[in-house]
Amino acid sequence: MVEQNLAGKLAVVTGSNSGIGLGVAEALAAAGADLVINSFTDRDEDHALAKDLADRHGVEVRYVAADMSKAADCRALIAAAGRCDILINNAGIQHVAPIDEFPQDKWDAILAINLSSAFHTTAAALPLMRKAGWGRVVNVASAHGLTASPFKSAYVAAKHGVVGLTKVTALETAGQGITCNAICPGYVLTPIIEAQIPDQMKTHNMSREDVIAKVMLSRQPSGQFATVEQIGGTAVFLCSDTAAQITGTTISVDGGWTAL
């Protein structure tokens, strides 16, 4: 069995000071990878989080602030990393509204952060990966990259775009020691999901418990949220030599959602 040991690799994880991104960063650090973690803030607690990860896992971790809604910041993040063996495109936001009521600024922000940022970071990282002769790009898409739900037009459009970008990246890097895949989580109880619950309660006129059971997890046959640890473990697998011939595909971690 090929070991999932990432010692000596440097991973850049966007949107990684909480939620899925932090779960992936934890898993990569536990597998031995050095890290650059990121969000748009530049607080003492962000840098303290990096130090905590480094201390607990015995790896090097830096926090680099960059606004993933801005192309220049996306590319500057990779430049600041200095090298990039593993790129985890995770940054994302959400807004829920009918198409005809969807705020234009929310549409623009979701497309920029959830989709365009992955393009810009990938474009900056690929030359570094090609120079090294090895690289892994893992895009955190969504079950909504493979299917749709009402009131999430921007998010669904962006995540479908991420899946398409994943395939193109894989084709352009095939045979170069680089792979690109997308993880498609179902519902994971993270801050971004927590933030959706009040809007869904208002839209459906339901209690919190009913929104979770009847709206969110109604499409997740397992009836359970996926965990950030499960997403992190999937990312480590995709970055390992075991997955060297897995590229251009999606892995669903959705409790059976997209099997329906």
* Order of strands in the sheet with most strands: 3-2-1-4-5-6-7
Total beta strand runs: 7
CATH T-level topology of the largest domain: Rossmann fold
**Domains (count):** 2
Q: Please count the helical segments.
A: 8
Relevant terms:
SDR, 3-hydroxybutyrate dehydrogenase, 3-OHbutyrate_DH, 7 strands, 2 domains, 47% helix, alpha/beta, globular, 260 residues, 8 helices, Sc_DH/Rdtase_CS, single chain, Rossmann fold, seven-stranded parallel sheet
Architecture blueprint of SSEs:
Blueprint: E1 10-13, H1 19-30, E2 34-39, H2 44-57, E3 61-65, H3 71-81, E4 86-89, H4 104-132, E5 135-140, H5 153-173, E6 178-185, H6 191-204, H7 208-216, H8 228-239, E7 250-253
Parallel strand pairs: 1-2, 1-4, 2-3, 4-5, 5-6, 6-7
Helix pairs in contact: 1-8, 3-4, 4-5, 6-7
Organism: Paracoccus sphaerophysae
GO biological process, one term: monocarboxylic acid metabolic process
Protein name: 3-hydroxybutyrate dehydrogenase
Explain how this protein is built:
With 260 residues, the protein is an alpha/beta fold. It has 2 domains: 10-186 and 226-249, Rossmann fold, CATH 3.40.50.720; 190-225, no CATH class. Helices cover 47% and strands 14% of the residues. The protein contains 8 helices and 7 strands. Strands 3-2-1-4-5-6-7 form a 7-stranded parallel beta sheet, sandwiched between helices. Strand 2, helix 2 and strand 3 form a beta-alpha-beta unit. The longest helix has 29 residues, at 104-132. The protein starts with 9 loop residues before the first strand and ends in a 7-residue tail after the last strand. The mean pLDDT is 96.
